[in-house]
Records
---
Amino acid sequence: MIDKMLSLWNTLLVTIWDILPIITILVVSQVVLIRRPIANLPRVLLGFFFVLIGLTFFIEGLERALFPLGKLMAEQLTAPAFLGLDGTETSVNWMEFGWIYLFAATIGFATTIAEPSLIAVAMKASEVSGGSIQPWGLRIAVAIGVAIGIALGAFRIITGTPLPYYIITGYVFVLIQTWYAPRMIVALAYDSGGVTTSTVTVPLVAALGLGLSTHIPGRNPMLDGFGLIAFASLFPMMTVMGYAQLSEWAARRAARAAQPASS
Amino acid sequence: MKALILQFLASLADSFRDLVPIIAVIAFFQLIVLGQPIPNLLDMLWGMFLVLIGLTLFVQGLKLGLFPIGESLAWDFAAKGSLIWLLIFAFALGFGTTVAEPALIAVANEAANVAAVGGWISDDPAAREDYADGLRITVALSVGAAIVIGVLRILKGFPIQNLIIIGYIGVVVMTFFAPPEIIGIAYDSGGVTTSTITVPLVAALGVGLASSIEGRNPMIDGFGLIAFASLTPMIFVMGYGALL
């Protein structure tokens, strides 16, 4: 019990240290530049207190429960014994890694749904769009993007193909899609690339990349272990724009279906 | 008081729903695919309890603290009409929140290891630390610059895709010049620099600015700050690798 409390206390100190720069900047701008009292100050302070305690509990809980097990799992799933490698292979067939792709996709999806910064952006987007962007729709679209991204990233590590080819192709796709996507969604879609990979996703995905690149013959963890996060920030842009395109198409179809009845 | 408790319980249920997928994935792979029991079940439950309470409190804190302060700052700066202070604030927010970001520190240390193994810097702890610190400050400067550019874009109402295209071209060009070993880390660095507290603040700031300026649409113009903040680190990490 005491060690649990002590560890929680340490996490609290680390969290305070992490958010100190932001608090300093906010206080300085408010006091020195704006020189105006904050509306509802007690409420705002309570909010910051909640954020601090909330993050502390969240990170402590992740480090206690999810990260050790998730990382261990990534190691076990990529261990030569599980992959059926005996160390004599010089190359591998990428099709023999079904569980890896499934793990990559599902863990990408699941960690994204739990990602607090995505929850924040989805709340904001729903508020600003007057409810026409549903928080759940957006979050699921992003999570599907991350799932595709991490699975494809695992495929890239297994095959050892160069990362820039994938990313540059992805950029071309994003730009073409931007041309056709509803204007309202474009900025939000670009943002969703950056917000998805944060507190929950990064440690687990990094463990997967490290495990894969260590055990697949011919891969070097130093060089090939990276790139999963890059994939995870690329594909949500496409799925979020795709989600908006689908919603627009569905709305237009519904409008067309309703027309004969009304005319 | 009763309403507050009810709201908290509803929020707790939401958080639980957010955590169900991750619990399901881990349980499925542990119990069925790997065929092993869950180790330290009691510790796991305690950890899940903390995650649940933590997420709930964080979401409440967003609504009460982070969102209102981000928006009120945006309105106050707009009302004051002082462009230079707004830009200084934007830079400080980007730089200050990134320079101490634990994920960035980890990335910088990784990059220093790669550089040492690659032989561009001498393989001793002091040289590595210099390299990592330099990289960290470069990235933080680039995020500061990204927020400044993003704020200017909101004020002027430029279409976001034009700036993103320039950024993408920057990434592609730097990919040709950067040492191949650094590319993976550089591409990853874009995703890791935006932290859990920065994102809501920056989103509220952008939306607040776009709402407070005549002729801007908060949906079209308000978002996009985070996109810039995740693009510039890629360019600068590769640039740093290419130059040093």
Note: Chain A touches chain B through 102 residues (CB under 8 Å).
---
Amino acid sequence: MIPHFLKRAVSFVVTLFIVLLATFVIMNLAPGDNPFADERPPSPEVIEARNKKYHLDRPLLLNTRTLSADTFTDTQFGIYLNGLLHGDLGPSFQYMDRDVNDVLGPAIPVSLLLGAIGLTVALALGIPAGVIAAVRYNSWTDRAAITAAMGGVILPNFILGPLLVMVFAFGLGILPPAGWGRPVDMILPAFLTGLPAAAMIARLTRAGLIEELRKDYIRAARARGVPEYKVVLKHAMKNGILPVVSYLGPAAANVLTGTVVVETIFAIPGMGTHFVDGAIQRDYKVVLGAVLVYCVLLMTFNFLVDLAYRFLDPRVERT
Amino acid sequence: MALFCGLWIGCADQTRDFDLTLVVGGEPESLDPAQIQSLSASRIADSLFEGLTNLNIADPTHPLPGLAESWTSSDDGRTYTFHLRAARWSNNAPVTAHDFVYSWKRLLTRSNGFQYADFLFYLKNGRRYYDGEVPFDQVGVRAAGDRTLVVTLERPTAHFLQLTAFTTFRPVYPPSVEQRNGGWTRPEHFVTSGPFVLEEWRFKHRIVLRKNPRYWDAANVRLESVALLAVKSENTALNLYESGAVDFISSVPGPILDTLKVRDDFQGGVAFGTYFIRFNTQRKPFDDPRIRQAFALAIDRQTLVRHVTRGHTQAARGFVPPGSPGYDAIEGLRFDPDDARRLLAEAGYPDGKGFPKVAYLFNKNENNTEIAQVLKAAWKDVLNIDVGMDDPDWKVYVGRLTGLQYDLSRGNWYGDYLAPSTFLDMFTTGNHFNQTGWSDADYDRLVDTANQTLAAAPRRALYREAEQILVEQQTPIAPLFHTATTNMIKPWVKGMTPNLRNVIRVKDFWVDTEAKNRSETAQ
């Protein structure tokens, strides 16, 4: 187990480094040279002062003026990595009183919470839907479930969102149209976030179960007189659920990174808007920070899913 | 599951009931008066920090006392002496003239990189200190005792008193800044002199203000707690307003403006801003003023305003919006297709023949796109010229504007104070807001002289002459329309006086709780 963990840890760090480097390069390649450019442009003196303050006058990746450790460390990327090692993700250009830790810090639990509830909703809706569809295979119930699932995948959230607000907030008046902080604020956003994943989970559950239910051991169990609900939920589910477990990794990724629209509609202070705004406003450090966070979260989650898979499926190699 | 519950408890906070909840824009870029650049941030900062004076909405040229109870000015208009009242910071330290000197020095120090530092170039030797030529003790601001501030200007400036109410000039508490530098704007360290203190600042979520009992005019502040929500989407802000979660919003979604503007809770009017076209005078063909004028004359501004921008937007004649004290609007270039065609022919392109390919630059959003389409159609109809549409992303757009890499482009400006110079200064030679490459010695001279003329009538005449050069004769810009305010205010929120710059002075507000309860039970 230990060597395996070590291997994972090393690949973790290497992947992170490459992703950060790539993001750094891409951000600097994007047109729009100065992050402080604005409709009311700062004067050349102000730009100079800020460039100095934020080390934007240093070379990007390699400092060719010296041939020492400084070649790598006296560069913008080097300064950034050095900061990372000390837990400092750098300053924000847009929000001048704050550094990236301040900007992303409060947003991470918000996004995690939204994602967690969204995923839970997805599982809570998707799995039962998939089970019912599989059990009533080829009936009207099944077809209805599949259509609903398709709808969930196809319908864009910026259409469904306002529709839900119209119905629940203004039509029925039982939910708030936006805001964050109370449990009731989380209902519509979580639903909207989880719906596409729910649809996918429903289809995967259905497909997985249908395949399992065809197998011999299931027929044997039925022949032994095991009640149908146990056949489905206890025996078939164990293997039938595996595709869903594998999907949880990408599902988490989608849910976590796809929250921008939901955050905008419901005014939720999550990571999605920071990421997109940061890119548009060329707030380099915020974007790097967001990429870092997403990367870490996704790699961790995938690792956990891997562990769960090994636990659930004894056929997977354990070395 | 456990993780989930932990997170839930960790971040679900209870939203309390605030006396007043507003949306005045997205998250502020800063709450440090010296750093602030946006209008929405200045509205919040103005509730936290007090200036020498306060804007007198009814009569802007005669500001109301703020931290200064009274002031005198010398006959030549170059020296002002402010007598400060015995005011206190929120931590009970006295507000002194030294606080002003410290804050203005901080603002004027080049290495700090504050964008509005140039507002202090009005001070004697302000520019020279900024450029490192003289030490700060040569700059025209000094504390003559703890409660007397003497300000000496480089030249007489008629609107200087108005500026003393401006956010940038409001002082900060020196020990806070010195000790913490970056972190002093956190709520736990925030020391203020204004009507409210900062109780909570949840990034991109909300800012909560609480009444400052040590504010010099606390007796007249009727709100105990105010919440400012950071909501960027106009649709979301309107939803929150309609559901009763928010009492005041300052912008509405364009598509439903017509439905909203007839409501009783809609407060609209002309604003102190202008939407205009910039021509790149350093590039053919717009180096020829006749072509610029032809393009300007081809646009029917009345139709644009009536059908596209709607609301209270107003077709522009001059560049400076009407309504500021002592300003007379000029004629401007009216819609005249025949004249436009004539000028185009004179410039060598009769009926648009042989006209080089040009593109209109603007940053993509619904409003700009609609306007761009109207302009394109106008230039095609009247001049028979196909102008390309160029709508890159925001940063690329501003970069190209500054780098003069465009043919003609959209422009937008709102005035920082109520005087023509905030608009006309922009197009003097070398001003970094110019961004057209245009330079005219007569214009520079007129604006400069006007800025120093204290007598109202001759000053007005000089500005008029300058504006005529800018808009009618040389036309490096073509003003299209003046922008409008679009506030929506619940009927039980009182105290908002409509004003040109849409100054939202929260300390004036109060809530008629009876009216509010009546309407809530009615719902």
Note: Chain B touches chain A through 57 residues (CB under 8 Å).
